[in-house]
């Protein structure tokens, strides 16, 4: 007699946005494993058409609540690239500092609040408040530092308002920045404790060879602008982003999918690390090596560890940035903006991977075309193929439903998907 | 999560019941919910005040039994209206959580084209996609008991409101505009710095969050009581800002939809 097992997880939890997992196994053989995205589209690319340039970062930043800073910066970069505005070194440093703190808050949110409960065998971070108060307090402490520093530089931790085309509306308080440097130094210890915690977790041992895409090749661990690279050896300029993303539509998803040299590719912390390992801060690189994480690592679950490594990197680098900023007097925060017609692309590494915003402008600075390619949309196809391989393996070993259910969700969570972002 | 001790917490000797709270999101960036998790310094106190039984973004457990439902996002597809109706049936209090839920938020910017076919085609080409022609606020579908304004919501305000609900206190929203708060904060007027600002007509309560950061108000909290939009137009004109600049702000979050319509209609009459 044939036995068919189906596993359906609708609107899976502890991810941003709405995605379903559907699995069908017959006689221990995987028939189907699907990663479905059911999120509603909000049509940001249409709503910006006809709007003047100053609306672009303000509106498109609202694509995402978790990485609104990254979206805002990508939009600003696209506008500035079109209008021929070169940010001052001070603006570049402040933007990078802001970006780093978004990376830190987002990674910590994922590591502790979204991913860790699976390793503790609980459904959320909430029971850990009683069982592991020190762990939750540590997470809160790191996240709060990151968010407070975002407030100080961007005006607000979410949907920042000081970040504008041409620079900043106002500058952070210098004495406050120096205080943050002390807190950054204290948080380094918290991150090492975090590493010790994650060392006690059993990271699933699963690999499927894939291509990793990120910014890279500039001599520094990249976050804002630069060349586009892949572990399969593809290299393009920022304005050639469409040659990297190759978006297409599928019936199982309201988000677009992407491909490059293979059926799918991956973006995110692991992709950045695989492409730029030697540019990591020495302490971050050391940490990666201690987890056996070296390029090119093809285990999607190691994205969690790559995020941890990046936390150390951004904290180290932020400390240096603050030293540089406080070491010289403030310059004018904002440049004049003169719109001109043309095309502008901004590529920014946001927590979940490489993000592109692109606009066409008319001579008055009104948007005539808008395109946003989101990290998670670039990851969807890779999640699909990983899911098939992973569940196929578990099905063959006769794992019970609840084990398959858990490992499938852990896989999706390891990508830290931002689904509403991906559909936008 | 629940322990017997939690159920018998007291405030001034009066037993407190922790309301069972659920969070839901329709079409949105999920940022307003994230603001709850962003309360690092007071998150634990907040969690002691309520019993969170549904919060998909943060927890796997879920329950259909809840007292207060916080609904983020606007309605942009038929299944969202259905979910909303079910939530309304189960909750005693439904809170429109953030500007998307209150007014449609940035999502309603697509409504201005009055051409859903063109909007779809811009993003998906000929690929079939299910979506409503317009993005609409919760109140277009169900009765809403309470609105919490903002894009994003301000965590301090959310905490205050939830505390008042838990204590059974009345909840009041400021009737005055952001401009009042901005003056109290002793900011230099944004108009004098060469920036357009909707502070004079937008409902306060955010403590002039954007103007404090030298960014003119975009009206995310919708109109204050007795908002004088005619006067606002005069101010914009006096400082040399175009009607387009004012409309960009007025229509950004949907709170001023009726005024935008009036201005556009007026313009139509002038050109006719």
Structural features, described:
The complex is a heterodimer of chains A (424) and B (272). Chain A has helices at residues 44-47, 55-60, 68-83, 89-120, 128-131, 133-154, 174-199, 242-245, 269-276, 282-290, 303-326, 375-396, 401-414, 419-423; strands spanning 4-9, 19-26, 29-37, 163-164, 167-168, 211-216, 227-230, 235-236, 265-266, 342-350, 353-361, 367-373. Chain A is an alpha+beta fold and 424 residues long. Chain A has one domain: Cytochrome-c3 Hydrogenase, chain B (Orthogonal Bundle). In chain A, strand 2 and strand 3 (29-37) form a beta hairpin. The mean pLDDT of chain A is 97. Chain B has 2 domains: 4-167, NADH:ubiquinone oxidoreductase-like, 20kDa subunit (Rossmann fold, 3-Layer(aba) Sandwich), CATH 3.40.50.700; 178-266, no CATH class. Chain B contains 11 helices and 7 strands. Chain B has helices at residues 4-7, 31-37, 43-49, 78-90, 99-103, 116-124, 155-167, 178-184, 229-238, 243-250, 257-271; strands spanning 10-11, 14-15, 20-25, 51-55, 68-72, 93-97, 146-148. Chain B has a 5-stranded parallel beta sheet, sandwiched between helices. Chain B is globular.
């Amino acid at each position: 007699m044939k036995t068919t097992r189906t596993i359906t997880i609708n609107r899976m939890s502890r991810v941003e946005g709405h995605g379903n997992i559907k699995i069908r196994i017959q006689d221990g053989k995987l028939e189907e494993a699907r990663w479905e995205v059911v999120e509603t589209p909000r049509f940001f690319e249409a709503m910006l058409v006809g709007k003047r340039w100053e609306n672009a970062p303000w509106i498109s930043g609202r694509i995402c609540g978790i990485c609104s800073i990254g979206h805002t910066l990508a939009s600003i970069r696209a506008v500035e690239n079109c209008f021929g505005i070169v940010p001052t070194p001070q603006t570049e440093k402040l933007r990078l500092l802001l970006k780093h703190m978004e990376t830190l808050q987002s990674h910590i949110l994922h590591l502790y609040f979204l991913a860790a409960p699976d390793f503790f065998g609980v459904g959320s971070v909430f029971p850990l408040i009683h069982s592991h108060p020190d762990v939750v307090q540590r997470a809160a402490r790191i996240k709060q530092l990151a968010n407070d520093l975002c407030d100080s530089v961007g005006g607000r931790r979410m949907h920042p308002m000081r970040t504008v085309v041409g620079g900043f509306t106002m500058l952070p308080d210098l004495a406050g920045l120096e205080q943050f440097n002390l807190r950054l130094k204290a948080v380094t210890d918290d991150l090492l404790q975090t590493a010790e915690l994650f060392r006690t977790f059993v990271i699933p041992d699963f690999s499927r060879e894939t291509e990793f895409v990120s910014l890279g090749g500039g001599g520094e661990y990249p976050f804002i602008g630069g060349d586009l690279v892949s572990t399969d050896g593809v290299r393009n300029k920022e304005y050639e982003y469409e040659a990297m993303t190759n978006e297409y539509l599928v019936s199982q998803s309201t988000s677009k999918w992407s491909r490059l040299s293979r059926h799918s590719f991956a973006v995110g912390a692991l992709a950045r690390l695989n492409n730029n390992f030697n540019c990591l801060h020495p302490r971050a690189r050391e940490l990666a090596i201690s987890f056996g994480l070296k390029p090119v690592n093809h285990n999607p679950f190691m994205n969690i560890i790559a995020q941890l490594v990046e936390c150390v990197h951004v904290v180290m680098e932020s400390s240096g940035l603050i030293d540089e900023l406080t070491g010289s007097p403030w310059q004018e925060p904002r440049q004049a903006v003169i719109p001109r017609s043309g095309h502008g692309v901004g590529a920014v590494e946001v927590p979940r991977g490489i993000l592109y915003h692109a606009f066409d402008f008319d001579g008055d600075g009104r948007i005539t075309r808008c395109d946003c390619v989101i990290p998670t949309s670039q990851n969807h196809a890779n999640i699909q193929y990983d899911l098939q391989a992973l569940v196929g393996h578990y099905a063959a070993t006769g794992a019970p439903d609840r084990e398959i259910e858990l490992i499938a969700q852990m896989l999706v969570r390891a990508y830290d998907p931002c689904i509403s972002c991906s559909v936008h | 999560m629940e322990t017997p001790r939690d159920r018998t917490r007291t405030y001034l000797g009066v037993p407190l019941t922790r309301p069972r709270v659920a969070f839901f999101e329709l079409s949105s960036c999920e940022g307003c919910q994230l603001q709850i998790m962003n309360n690092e310094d007071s998150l634990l106190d907040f969690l002691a005040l309520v019993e969170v039984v549904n919060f998909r973004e943060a927890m796997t457990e879920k329950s259909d039994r809840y007292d207060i439902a916080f609904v983020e996002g606007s309605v942009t597809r038929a299944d969202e209206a259905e979910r909303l109706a079910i939530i309304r049936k189960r909750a005693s209090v439904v809170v429109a959580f953030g500007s998307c839920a209150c007014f449609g938020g940035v999502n309603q910017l697509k409504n201005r084209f009055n051409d859903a076919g063109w909007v779809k085609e811009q993003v998906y080409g000929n690929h079939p996609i299910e979506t409503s022609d317009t993005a609409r606020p919760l109140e277009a579908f169900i009765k809403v008991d309470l609105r919490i304004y903002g894009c994003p919501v301000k965590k301090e305000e959310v905490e205050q409101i939830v505390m008042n609900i838990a204590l059974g206190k009345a909840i009041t929203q400021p009737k005055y505009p952001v401009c009042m708060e901005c003056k109290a904060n002793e900011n230099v007027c944004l108009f004098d710095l060469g920036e357009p600002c909707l502070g004079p007509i937008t409902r306060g309560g955010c403590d002039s969050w954007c103007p404090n950061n030298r960014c003119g108000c975009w009206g995310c909290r919708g109109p204050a009581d007795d908002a004088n939009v005619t006067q606002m137009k005069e101010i914009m004109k006096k400082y040399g800002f175009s009607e387009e600049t004012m409309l960009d702000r007025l229509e950004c979050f949907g709170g001023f939809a009726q005024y935008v319509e009036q201005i556009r209609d007026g313009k139509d009459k002038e050109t006719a």
